[in-house]
Amino acid sequence: MDSPTDLALFQQQLKLAFRDQSLLQRALTHRSYLNEHPDKALEDNERLEFLGDAVLDFIAGDWLYNRFPEMHEGRLTRLRAALVRTETLADFGQQCQLGQALCLGRGEEDSGGRHRQANLCRGFEALIGAIYLDLGMDVVRDFVLPFFEAALRVILASDADKDAKSLLQEWSQATLNLTPSYRTVAAAGPDHAKEFTVEVVIGERVYGQGRGRSKQAAAQEAAQAALEDVQDGFPANPL
């Protein structure tokens, strides 16, 4: 998405009107685009992603605290984590048709980058950061709460807020009589947007891998990936 006309169409779809169009453009600019277009006077969306992540955490926590006045802190924490995890935010981005709007490098686009969960999640966080800076917290809240409402219904109906690491440990100990372990295999990116890659190992086999802005978040994603493989017929007693 390069032209002001495209930006106008995207805002129309979102029912938003940015005062500073450059903020929206930055929110939609993946670093791969700048790597292939160093002559463009643009910034990538990683700093806005950092800000949007914090704003979403706050809004989710504030909303859940007031919506469930009798709920204990542990359950509120799990619900907030379920609302702002990669898969959920990527789904929000997909609902916004964010994938089609992102400025991607040719290599990233050819490898499926418009549909990649990480890009959709980060793009949505960057969009939230841009809305916050340009239009304020009230507009962000009005924009994001309908997404949270719909997602929360699914999360509560399916108990999707349960901790993936705990569920995997229960399965592993009951099925294999082994306890999962987690190891950090990579850390990349600038300090303000560091991304960790963590693997979950049971016995001598890697059962899942996850990425996140903290080792804990990456470990949760690795556990979730392992659970999905188990549910899809991953061998219960690997050699």
Architecture overview:
- With 239 residues, the chain is mainly α.
- The protein has 12 helices and 3 strands; from the N terminus they run H-H-H-H-H-H-H-H-H-H-H-E-E-E-H.
- The protein has a 3-stranded antiparallel sheet with strand order 1-2-3.
- Helix 4 packs antiparallel against helix 5 and helix 4 (46-67) crosses helix 9.
- Residues 1-5 and 234-239 have low confidence and may be disordered.
Walk across the major sheet and give the strand order.
Answer: 1-2-3
- Summed up, the helix count is 12
Q: What's the CATH class of the largest domain, please? A: Mainly Alpha
**Can you tell me the CATH architecture of the largest domain?**
Orthogonal Bundle
Beta-strand content estimate: 5-15%
The helix/strand series, from N terminus to C terminus, equals HHHHHHHHHHHEEEH
Q: Which structural class fits the helix and strand makeup?
A: mainly alpha
**Roughly how much helix do the residues carry, as a percent range?**
55-70%
The stretches of 5 or more residues where confidence is low (pLDDT under 50) are 1-5, 234-239
Instruction: Provide the domain count.
Output: 2
